[in-house]
Design goal:
Elements: E1 7-10, H1 27-30, H2 41-45, E2 48-54, H3 55-63, E3 73-77, E4 90-93, H4 97-106, E5 111-115, H5 118-126, E6 132-134
Amino acid sequence: MMKQRKVIVHIAMSADGYIARTDGDLEWLTARPAPAGFYGIDAFMQSIDTKALGRKTYEASLRMGAKFGSGDRTIVFSHHPRPKDAPATVEFTNEAIDVFVNRLRESPGKNIWLMGGGEIIASFLDAQAIRRVRH
């Protein structure tokens, strides 16, 4: 029997419990020098091979210079059409989260990193699709 993949929320969170400022600014996180091992992210990255993002997180990632290469699978959940300039390596879906995630969990691979803010995390929680939260 194949081990079922987990959807893991792994986020940076401020001491007062926020992911970002009310205007979406992440300066509190990006202005600090990164420590060796960047808070365990290097080890965490070895445990995943798929990234699931909401559209807003995807767009914010692009603005911050993220590159979505072919190394890992990247899936963006969005009700908007796929942008014409989206990298070919990025998949877009508007399928119901529970249906998509259940199929993804049953496929071979490592764990799935849910990257995002409150809206996408709440949607995954509503679909009972999250197995672990790390911060």
